[in-house]
């Protein structure tokens, strides 16, 4: 999967280079993705100017890995320019490092049609309670059926 990360134009080059260095130093990214710098559109008007970080993700690299790498970078640089992440023609611009931002990144990287995972902090459904209308069995409590 090919992913592009691009910073807003106001300090785009500095933010792009900083994010590139951060990703290159991340052990998970080093093992499972190829990270390069390049123009937003090869052969375009910028003639090879550095505008984006290109990531080619391997099968073992998950969306959550990228979301975590971005979040740790952003937490260390809360005032950095917004970053736009583009995958297969779909984009999201992120500025924070909170759970909602991570969920946006994971959703963007999830293949179309795949089920949405449970979000962090979401409680599992409560266990099913025994049917209180079931016939009672002498010597057994409906709340604690094994005695």
Q: What's the helical proportion of residues?
A: 25-40%
Terminal CA distance: 55 Å
Helix-and-strand structural type: alpha+beta
Total number of strands: 5
Query: What's the alpha carbon Rg, rounded to whole Å?
Result: 23 Å
Provide the low-confidence segments as ranges.
118-136
Question: Which shape, going by the Cα principal axes?
Answer: globular
Most strands sheet: 5 strands, antiparallel
Q: What series of H and E elements makes up the topology? A: EHHEEHEEH
The strands making up the biggest β-sheet line up spatially as 2-3-1-4-5
Number of helices: 4
The average pLDDT value, as a whole number, equals: 76
Quote the beta fraction: 15-25%
Describe the structure.
It is a single chain. By secondary structure, the chain is of the alpha+beta class. The chain has four helices and five strands; from the N terminus they run E-H-H-E-E-H-E-E-H. It has a five-stranded antiparallel beta sheet with strand order 2-3-1-4-5. A hairpin with a 2-residue loop joins strand 4 (83-87) and strand 5.
Give the helix/strand layout.
Elements: E1 2-7, H1 12-25, H2 27-32, E2 33-38, E3 52-57, H3 63-76, E4 83-87, E5 90-94, H4 99-109
Antiparallel strand pairs: 1-3, 1-4, 2-3, 4-5
Helix pairs in contact: 3-4
């Amino acid at each position: 999967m090919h992913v592009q990360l691009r910073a807003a134009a106001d300090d785009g080059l500095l933010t792009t280079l900083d994010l590139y260095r951060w990703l290159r130093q991340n052990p998970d990214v080093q093992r499972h993705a190829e990270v390069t710098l390049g123009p937003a559109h090869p052969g375009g008007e910028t003639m090879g100017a550095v505008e984006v970080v290109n990531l080619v993700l391997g099968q073992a690299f998950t969306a959550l890995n990228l979301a975590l790498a971005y979040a740790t970078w952003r937490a260390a640089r809360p005032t950095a320019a917004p970053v736009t992440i583009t995958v297969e023609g779909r984009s999201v611009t992120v500025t924070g490092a909170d759970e909602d931002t991570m969920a946006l990144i994971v959703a963007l990287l999830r293949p179309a049609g795949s089920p949405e995972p449970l979000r962090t902090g979401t409680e599992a459904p409560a266990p099913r309670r025994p049917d209180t209308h079931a016939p009672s069995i002498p010597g057994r409590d409906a709340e604690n059926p094994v005695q």
